[in-house]
Amino acid sequence: MFNTTAWNRLRYSLYAPVYDVVAERAFRRPRREALGQVTWQPGMRVLLVGAGTGLDLPWLPRDIELHAGDLSPAMVTRLARRAQAMGRDVQAREMDAERLDFPDAHFDVVVMHLILAVMPDPVRGLAEARRVLRKDGQLCVMDKFQPDDRPAGLARRSLNALTSAIATDITRQARPLLEGAGFTIEQDTPVMMGSLFRALLARPTPA
Ligand SMILES: C[S@@+](CC[C@H](N)C(=O)[O-])C[C@H]1O[C@@H](n2cnc3c(N)ncnc32)[C@H](O)[C@@H]1O
């Protein structure tokens, strides 16, 4: 499978100029629904992981402390530009979701939209999300997933060799991934294309 972090950095830097054309309108409702599942409070410290061009920004409350990281410098530049145009204070920087540059238990909310199916090692990404989340923190996920009750068949796995290299993995299963990483799923809502795209709200499972 041709899906590495170096390749993702390169291809998303190439996609950055056209990303909004493809993803802004298509994912507007799913991302609003996903963020609507979070219980927001003023002053919360929030991290967007694999934040892209910042298409989540319009749907986030203003009275939060917002941080954003992305592997691709071109994405970070666009996100910073969007934040400035919106008059929002966002700490945006280049960052690998597999090595978050933050201390343990630092965030009230971690948002992972359309990143778990992209990064080569989602288990590592979720372990990092769990590490930086407070013990009562919330993980907000929106992505495409294979149904939890059956692993991907041969045809889907074959197609995945192509889709994971140019777009996204289509074989990942939400519940095994999140529960395996130590999260308890509180909400799981189909948001697009039947139940292909789901919005999940999870919290760290108490030790
Ligand atoms: C499909 S886009 C989603 C962007 C944004 N979250 C959204 O909802 O529009 C995937 C993003 O993940 C970023 N990405 C891929 N691998 C990453 C990694 N290991 N760490 C951080 N960001 C990563 C890409 O650069 C790209 O911006």
TrEMBL record:
GO BP terms, alphabetized: methylation
Signal peptide: none
One MF annotation (Gene Ontology) recorded for this entry: S-adenosylmethionine-dependent methyltransferase activity
Keyword terms: Methyltransferase, Transferase, Ubiquinone
Domain of life: Bacteria
Domain Methyltransferase type as annotated: residue spans: 48-140
Protein name in the entry: Ubiquinone/menaquinone biosynthesis C-methylase UbiE
